[in-house]
Design brief:
This protein is α/β, with parallel strands linked by helices and 290 residues long. The chain folds into 3 domains: 82 residues, Orthogonal Bundle (Arc Repressor Mutant, subunit A), CATH 1.10.10; 99 residues, 3-Layer(aba) Sandwich (D-Maltodextrin-Binding Protein, domain 2); 98 residues, 3-Layer(aba) Sandwich (D-Maltodextrin-Binding Protein, domain 2). The protein is built from 10 helices and 12 strands. β1 and β2 form a beta hairpin. α1 packs across α3, α1 crosses α4 and α2 packs across α3. The protein is elongated, with a radius of gyration of 24 Å.
Length: 290
């Protein structure tokens, strides 16, 4: 029983299409079949039912998966620790503005400090563009702030966030209905995750927004808000944490609405998850474990 045989077993457990697995791993179908046969011979058990060109996990295979997968993953993690000095290459990654500006910069720095033979090609663009570039394989990895589902994209939750309404007018009432906020709205551009979450959840009530300006940067929006008390914006709580603590901005609670959202890691389902890619994904995810 070898690690390679086990890796083929777990791959086929998730995808019974031998042709697809062989293509993903860049090996022949016969090599996979021989490895699985060798594993079954070692165990003295048949783990798969052969149905046409598919290998379907049978009841003994499911039992073997359940008993071994966690131990296998721990072994691979340990192996990766000792291989970290061999991790090299370039990753093309893009994140939406909120995530990039307020959550990822330190993580990027720490990763590059740990793996000095790696280059990160970093972009900061809106979620809609990230999705399209992941679909086109222009990016290895994207981090977005909208709940988008596409059959060709793998999506993993990273962390959660909340949008809040803020103004620099400290005398404005702290709780309002949307149609009672008689101020100029300064919003992110159409296509941004923040804008999409906010207007989608408002639905028909978005007609009450007096959209005075649209900008593509939270820092620009905050500067305008701080200088102009007649303005208001919907913004990530992460992005205004410091301004709220310093009493430069104040939250307006919106009656009947709560703007919760999740941040997601996404990548193309056909993306080859090599050691560098998986190490980078795991490194990011571990920073958000509470």
């Amino acid at each position: 029983m070898t690690l390679k045989e086990l890796s083929f077993f777990y791959k086929l457990s998730e995808n019974p299409q031998v042709t697809q697995v062989a293509h993903e791993l860049k090996i022949s179908q016969s090599a996979i079949s021989l490895a699985i046969k060798s594993l079954e011979n070692d165990l003295g058990e048949q783990l798969f039912d052969r149905v046409g060109k598919k290998l379907i996990l049978n009841e003994r295979g499911r039992s073997f998966y359940k008993e071994t997968h966690l131990h296998y993953q721990k072994l691979i993690d340990a192996q990766n620790i000792f291989k970290k000095d061999k991790i090299a290459g370039e990753i093309k990654v893009a994140a939406s503005k909120t995530v990039s500006n307020y959550l990822l910069s330190d993580i990027y720095y720490d990763f590059l400090s740990t793996y000095q033979n790696v280059k990160l090609n970093i972009k900061t663009i809106n979620s809609t563009d990230i999705i399209q570039q992941v679909l086109n394989s222009q990016l290895d990895l994207g981090i977005i702030e909208i709940d988008s589902i596409h059959s060709n994209i793998i999506r993993e939750k990273l962390t959660d966030d909340e949008l809040i309404i803020v103004t620099s007018d400290n005398k404005y009432k702290k709780e309002s209905f949307i149609d009672e906020i008689k101020k100029r709205w300064i919003l992110r551009e159409i296509g941004s995750g923040t804008r999409e979450i906010f207007t989608n959840q408002l639905g028909e009530n978005s007609k009450y927004l007096d959209v005075f300006m649209e900008l593509n940067d939270f820092e620009e929006i905050k500067k305008i808000l701080i200088k102009n008390k007649e303005c208001v914006s919907a913004i990530s709580k992460v992005a205004v944490k410091e301004e709220l603590e310093n009493n430069q901005l104040f939250e307006i609670k919106l009656k009947n609405f709560e703007f919760k959202r999740d941040f997601y890691i996404i990548y193309n389902k056909d993306k080859s998850k090599n050691l560098l890619f998986q190490t980078f994904v795991n490194f990011i995810k571990k920073q958000f474990i509470n």
